[in-house]
Amino acid sequence: MLTEKPLDGKVVLITGANRGIGLAIAHRLGALGASLGISARDRNRLDAVARELQSSTKVAAIPADLTHADEAGTLVSRTEHALGPVDILVNNAGVGTFSPIQDASESDWDTMLDTNLRAVFLLTKAVAPGMIRRRSGHIVNIASLAGKNAFPGGAIYCASKWGLLGLTRCAAEDLRAHGIRVSAICPGSVETEFSPHGKKDPAKMLQPQDVAHAVEMIVTQAPQSFISEIELRPTQKP
Protein backbone atom coordinates (compact mmCIF):
# COMPACT_ATOMS: atom_id res chain seq x y z
CA MET A 1 0.00 0.00 0.00
CA LEU A 2 1.41 3.37 -1.01
CA THR A 3 2.01 5.91 1.72
CA GLU A 4 2.69 9.60 1.53
CA LYS A 5 6.10 9.10 3.17
CA PRO A 6 7.31 5.63 2.12
CA LEU A 7 10.77 6.18 3.65
CA ASP A 8 9.51 7.46 7.00
CA GLY A 9 11.79 6.10 9.73
CA LYS A 10 14.56 5.14 7.30
CA VAL A 11 18.11 6.45 7.46
CA VAL A 12 19.88 7.25 4.19
CA LEU A 13 23.58 7.99 3.79
CA ILE A 14 24.48 9.86 0.59
CA THR A 15 28.03 10.67 -0.47
CA GLY A 16 28.85 13.62 -2.70
CA ALA A 17 25.65 15.20 -1.42
CA ASN A 18 26.62 18.85 -1.47
CA ARG A 19 25.73 19.55 -5.11
CA GLY A 20 24.44 18.15 -8.39
CA ILE A 21 23.14 14.60 -8.42
CA GLY A 22 23.81 13.95 -4.74
CA LEU A 23 21.91 17.04 -3.65
CA ALA A 24 18.96 16.15 -5.87
CA ILE A 25 18.88 12.65 -4.34
CA ALA A 26 18.96 14.14 -0.84
CA HIS A 27 16.01 16.41 -1.60
CA ARG A 28 14.02 13.55 -3.15
CA LEU A 29 14.58 10.99 -0.40
CA GLY A 30 14.14 13.58 2.34
CA ALA A 31 10.77 14.46 0.84
CA LEU A 32 9.88 10.77 1.08
CA GLY A 33 10.44 10.88 4.85
CA ALA A 34 14.02 9.63 5.23
CA SER A 35 16.50 11.03 7.72
CA LEU A 36 19.61 12.05 5.83
CA GLY A 37 23.29 11.54 6.46
CA ILE A 38 25.04 13.68 3.88
CA SER A 39 28.74 13.76 3.18
CA ALA A 40 31.24 15.60 0.98
CA ARG A 41 34.71 17.10 1.34
CA ASP A 42 33.66 20.76 1.28
CA ARG A 43 32.54 21.43 4.88
CA ASN A 44 31.18 24.94 4.22
CA ARG A 45 29.08 23.87 1.25
CA LEU A 46 27.91 20.77 3.11
CA ASP A 47 26.77 22.82 6.10
CA ALA A 48 24.84 25.17 3.79
CA VAL A 49 23.10 22.20 2.18
CA ALA A 50 22.26 20.77 5.62
CA ARG A 51 20.56 24.01 6.59
CA GLU A 52 18.60 23.88 3.35
CA LEU A 53 17.44 20.30 3.97
CA GLN A 54 16.70 20.63 7.69
CA SER A 55 13.46 22.47 7.01
CA SER A 56 11.88 19.21 5.88
CA THR A 57 13.77 16.34 7.56
CA LYS A 58 16.46 15.38 10.08
CA VAL A 59 19.97 15.83 8.70
CA ALA A 60 23.48 14.93 9.84
CA ALA A 61 26.20 16.64 7.77
CA ILE A 62 29.51 14.80 8.06
CA PRO A 63 32.50 15.94 6.01
CA ALA A 64 34.72 13.13 4.75
CA ASP A 65 37.48 12.55 2.22
CA LEU A 66 36.76 9.04 1.04
CA THR A 67 40.16 8.65 -0.56
CA HIS A 68 41.30 7.99 3.02
CA ALA A 69 40.23 4.49 4.02
CA ASP A 70 39.72 5.23 7.70
CA GLU A 71 37.22 8.00 6.93
CA ALA A 72 34.74 5.57 5.31
CA GLY A 73 34.17 3.61 8.50
CA THR A 74 34.09 6.79 10.55
CA LEU A 75 31.47 8.28 8.24
CA VAL A 76 29.17 5.29 8.76
CA SER A 77 29.66 5.18 12.53
CA ARG A 78 29.07 8.93 12.92
CA THR A 79 25.93 8.74 10.76
CA GLU A 80 24.55 5.86 12.84
CA HIS A 81 25.38 7.65 16.10
CA ALA A 82 23.46 10.73 14.92
CA LEU A 83 20.51 9.11 13.13
CA GLY A 84 20.42 5.37 13.70
CA PRO A 85 21.36 2.36 11.56
CA VAL A 86 21.86 3.06 7.85
CA ASP A 87 19.03 1.52 5.84
CA ILE A 88 20.03 2.95 2.45
CA LEU A 89 23.52 3.81 1.21
CA VAL A 90 23.82 5.90 -1.96
CA ASN A 91 27.39 5.87 -3.26
CA ASN A 92 27.30 9.00 -5.38
CA ALA A 93 30.67 10.68 -4.78
CA GLY A 94 32.76 10.71 -7.91
CA VAL A 95 35.49 12.58 -9.72
CA GLY A 96 36.56 12.73 -13.34
CA THR A 97 39.69 13.92 -15.13
CA PHE A 98 39.67 13.43 -18.86
CA SER A 99 42.73 13.19 -21.10
CA PRO A 100 44.36 10.78 -23.56
CA ILE A 101 45.89 7.87 -21.66
CA GLN A 102 49.39 8.86 -22.75
CA ASP A 103 48.93 12.19 -20.96
CA ALA A 104 47.25 10.83 -17.82
CA SER A 105 49.18 10.69 -14.56
CA GLU A 106 49.44 8.14 -11.76
CA SER A 107 47.88 10.79 -9.53
CA ASP A 108 44.83 10.92 -11.85
CA TRP A 109 44.57 7.13 -11.61
CA ASP A 110 44.87 7.05 -7.83
CA THR A 111 42.35 9.85 -7.27
CA MET A 112 39.68 8.45 -9.59
CA LEU A 113 40.02 4.82 -8.56
CA ASP A 114 40.13 5.70 -4.85
CA THR A 115 37.02 7.92 -5.08
CA ASN A 116 34.94 6.18 -7.72
CA LEU A 117 35.63 2.56 -6.81
CA ARG A 118 37.63 1.97 -3.61
CA ALA A 119 35.39 4.23 -1.52
CA VAL A 120 32.33 2.27 -2.67
CA PHE A 121 34.00 -0.98 -1.62
CA LEU A 122 34.92 0.44 1.80
CA LEU A 123 31.50 1.96 2.50
CA THR A 124 29.73 -1.21 1.37
CA LYS A 125 31.86 -3.23 3.79
CA ALA A 126 31.10 -0.71 6.55
CA VAL A 127 27.29 -0.88 6.21
CA ALA A 128 26.94 -4.55 5.24
CA PRO A 129 27.29 -6.17 8.70
CA GLY A 130 24.45 -4.12 10.19
CA MET A 131 22.25 -4.69 7.17
CA ILE A 132 22.96 -8.43 7.36
CA ARG A 133 21.93 -8.50 11.03
CA ARG A 134 18.69 -6.65 10.20
CA ARG A 135 18.20 -8.68 7.00
CA SER A 136 17.34 -5.58 5.00
CA GLY A 137 18.98 -2.70 3.22
CA HIS A 138 19.63 -0.95 -0.06
CA ILE A 139 22.96 -0.01 -1.60
CA VAL A 140 22.65 2.17 -4.68
CA ASN A 141 25.77 2.94 -6.69
CA ILE A 142 25.72 5.87 -9.10
CA ALA A 143 27.70 4.46 -12.00
CA SER A 144 27.67 5.75 -15.58
CA LEU A 145 27.14 4.72 -19.18
CA ALA A 146 30.90 5.34 -19.30
CA GLY A 147 31.09 1.98 -17.52
CA LYS A 148 29.82 0.40 -20.73
CA ASN A 149 31.02 2.68 -23.53
CA ALA A 150 34.52 3.82 -24.39
CA PHE A 151 35.35 7.34 -25.54
CA PRO A 152 38.56 9.26 -26.23
CA GLY A 153 40.11 10.72 -23.11
CA GLY A 154 38.06 8.56 -20.78
CA ALA A 155 40.44 5.68 -20.05
CA ILE A 156 40.75 6.09 -16.27
CA TYR A 157 37.20 7.31 -15.70
CA CYS A 158 35.76 4.47 -17.76
CA ALA A 159 37.96 1.96 -15.94
CA SER A 160 36.63 3.17 -12.59
CA LYS A 161 33.02 2.90 -13.71
CA TRP A 162 33.53 -0.45 -15.45
CA GLY A 163 34.97 -1.69 -12.16
CA LEU A 164 32.06 -0.20 -10.22
CA LEU A 165 29.56 -2.17 -12.28
CA GLY A 166 31.49 -5.38 -11.64
CA LEU A 167 31.65 -4.61 -7.92
CA THR A 168 27.91 -3.84 -7.85
CA ARG A 169 26.88 -7.04 -9.57
CA CYS A 170 29.06 -9.26 -7.39
CA ALA A 171 28.00 -7.48 -4.18
CA ALA A 172 24.37 -8.02 -5.21
CA GLU A 173 24.99 -11.76 -5.47
CA ASP A 174 26.80 -11.86 -2.13
CA LEU A 175 24.18 -9.89 -0.22
CA ARG A 176 20.81 -10.74 -1.77
CA ALA A 177 20.40 -13.86 0.40
CA HIS A 178 20.56 -11.53 3.42
CA GLY A 179 17.71 -9.35 2.19
CA ILE A 180 20.05 -6.61 0.92
CA ARG A 181 19.52 -5.19 -2.56
CA VAL A 182 22.49 -3.72 -4.43
CA SER A 183 21.79 -1.70 -7.56
CA ALA A 184 23.52 0.54 -10.07
CA ILE A 185 22.25 3.54 -11.97
CA CYS A 186 24.06 4.33 -15.22
CA PRO A 187 23.23 7.84 -16.44
CA GLY A 188 24.47 9.43 -19.61
CA SER A 189 25.67 13.03 -19.47
CA VAL A 190 23.95 14.98 -16.70
CA GLU A 191 23.83 18.77 -16.63
CA THR A 192 26.06 19.46 -13.62
CA GLU A 193 29.37 21.18 -13.02
CA PHE A 194 31.05 17.74 -12.76
CA SER A 195 32.72 17.89 -16.18
CA PRO A 196 32.66 19.92 -19.41
CA HIS A 197 30.07 18.77 -21.92
CA GLY A 198 31.47 20.36 -25.06
CA LYS A 199 28.84 21.32 -27.59
CA LYS A 200 26.00 19.37 -25.97
CA ASP A 201 22.73 21.26 -25.55
CA PRO A 202 22.06 21.51 -21.78
CA ALA A 203 18.31 21.64 -22.43
CA LYS A 204 18.48 18.13 -23.90
CA MET A 205 20.76 16.63 -21.24
CA LEU A 206 19.67 14.60 -18.24
CA GLN A 207 19.02 16.62 -15.09
CA PRO A 208 20.07 15.65 -11.54
CA GLN A 209 16.38 15.19 -10.71
CA ASP A 210 16.18 12.42 -13.34
CA VAL A 211 18.80 10.41 -11.47
CA ALA A 212 17.07 11.13 -8.16
CA HIS A 213 13.84 9.75 -9.59
CA ALA A 214 15.63 6.54 -10.56
CA VAL A 215 16.97 6.21 -7.00
CA GLU A 216 13.43 6.65 -5.68
CA MET A 217 12.18 3.84 -7.91
CA ILE A 218 14.87 1.49 -6.61
CA VAL A 219 14.45 2.18 -2.89
CA THR A 220 10.64 2.02 -2.98
CA GLN A 221 10.56 -1.29 -4.88
CA ALA A 222 8.35 -4.02 -3.38
CA PRO A 223 10.39 -6.34 -1.14
CA GLN A 224 10.06 -9.50 -3.22
CA SER A 225 12.20 -8.14 -6.07
CA PHE A 226 14.87 -5.57 -6.84
CA ILE A 227 15.95 -3.43 -9.75
CA SER A 228 19.55 -4.44 -10.35
CA GLU A 229 20.50 -1.79 -12.89
CA ILE A 230 19.03 1.24 -14.63
CA GLU A 231 20.43 2.79 -17.80
CA LEU A 232 19.29 6.40 -18.02
CA ARG A 233 19.36 8.42 -21.22
CA PRO A 234 17.82 11.72 -22.35
CA THR A 235 14.85 11.53 -24.69
CA GLN A 236 16.72 13.56 -27.30
CA LYS A 237 20.42 13.18 -27.98
CA PRO A 238 22.13 16.35 -26.80
Summarize the SSE layout with pairings.
Blueprint lengths: L10 E5 L4 H12 L3 E5 L3 H11 L5 E3 L7 H15 L4 E4 L14 H29 L2 E6 L12 H21 L4 E8 L20 H12 L9 E4 L6
Parallel strand pairs: 1-2, 1-4, 2-3, 4-5, 5-6, 6-7
Helix pairs in contact: 1-6, 3-4, 4-5
SSE succession: EHEHEHEHEHEHE
Q: Give the strand content.
A: 5-15%
In whole angstroms, the N-to-C terminal distance is 38 Å
Shape: globular
Task: Give a description of the structure.
The protein has 6 helices and 7 strands, in the order βαβαβαβαβαβαβ. It has helices spanning 20-31, 43-53, 69-83, 106-134, 155-175, 208-219; strands at residues 11-15, 35-39, 59-61, 88-91, 137-142, 180-187, 229-232. The protein is globular and about 45 Å long. The mean pLDDT is 95. It has one domain: NAD(P)-binding Rossmann-like Domain (Rossmann fold).
In short:
The protein is α/β, with parallel strands linked by helices. The protein contains six helices and seven strands, in the order E-H-E-H-E-H-E-H-E-H-E-H-E. It has one domain (12-232): Rossmann fold, CATH 3.40.50.720.
Short key terms for the protein model shown above:
238 residues; Rossmann fold; 7 strands
